[in-house]
Amino acid sequence: MNRDAIFEIIILLGRPAAGKSEILEFLYQVDDQTRINTYHLGKLDVIDDFPMLWAWFEEDQILSEKFRKPRLHSDENEYFKYPYLWNLLIERINLEYNKRTRDDDLYHQHRTTLVEFSRGSEHGGYQQAFEHLSDQILSRAVIFYVQVSYAESLRKNRKRFNPERPDSILEHAVDERKLETLYRDDDFQDLRSQSESTEFLTIRNQEVPYVVFENEDDITTVGGAALGSRLEHAFNQLWSIKRRVWQSKD
Q1: Are 188 and 194 contacting, i.e. CB atoms less than 8 angstroms apart?
Q2: What CATH number corresponds to the domain at position 109?
Q3: Do the domain assignments include residue 236?
Q4: Domain of 19?
Q5: Could you give the CA distance from residue 83 to residue 245 in angstroms, rounded to a whole number?
């Protein structure tokens, strides 16, 4: 397998509860040949900043409750103490990606990396996050943005929450006050409007292909063939853009 068969890196973005994790859950269940031929995806390798963030919260709780020591990352309400910690999470993503490619010379011959995160305008938005993504990632990446309104994000956030599993990828929820403070405003559409192209975002002088996956009707919860068909259309649109980039460089 080579770059003519699969995406190397997909940056999967969208508000909390937009449907990103449901998309991944669907793709995990697709057989290998369908995943490659229909969606242009190799074996999926996900780098998600939520487990990193949640580990910080757990450590702070242990420090505060068990050791009676100061919290390192967050205050008592689990807001970050320092805004730069959002950028540190992106640097952690870079580090995790570097480890993977360091240890496997043929990594992208058979794998597609899914880099997943959400950013609201309050803490710098996607514009600031993109500035911290490494050149190694950006040069290979395409962006898959899952579009939902804030109201839909709030509805799904409430629906999916399981208080018994607050660390779960599919069942965690953001506190509603935090959701409004941190994620009500989303700058992805602003970045699109600033671009001269409807197919690329310019990030540090690199043209990164993107597609917007509409999910206001919550097709990710419906799942099944309906979700598969919409994903196929979006991934094929993105693949067409990516192939033209490769061809222009050959």
Answers
A1: no
A2: 3.40.50.300
A3: yes
A4: 9-249
A5: 35
Q: Which residues pair with 206 in a beta bridge?
A: 203
What pLDDT score does 14 carry? 97
Tokens found for residue 8: 């190397």
Domain count, the chain: 1
> Which residues sit opposite 10 in a β-bridge?
114, 142
CA gap 96, 26 in Å, rounded: 24
Range with lowest mean pLDDT among 66-70, 114-118, 175-179, 181-185:
175-179
Element (H, E) at 160: helix 150-160
User: Rounded distance, CA 27 to CA 230, Å?
Assistant: 13
Tokens representing residue 91 in the block:
């640097």
Whether 118 is in a domain gets the answer yes
* Residue 4 counted as domain residue: no
CA angle 194, 197, 200 (to 5 degrees): 95
What sign does the CA torsion over 212, 19, 92, 186 have?
Answer: positive
In a domain, residue 86? The reply is: yes
100: left (phi over 0), alpha (psi -120 to 50) or beta: alpha
Query: Are 160 and 16 spatial neighbours (Cβ–Cβ below 8 Å)?
Result: no
Burial classification of residue 83, based on how many CB atoms lie within 10 Å of its CB (0-12 exposed, 13-18 middle, 19 or more buried): exposed
Mean pLDDT of 45-58: 94
- In the numeric block, the tokens 């309050």 are attached to 122
**pTM for this predicted structure:** 0.93
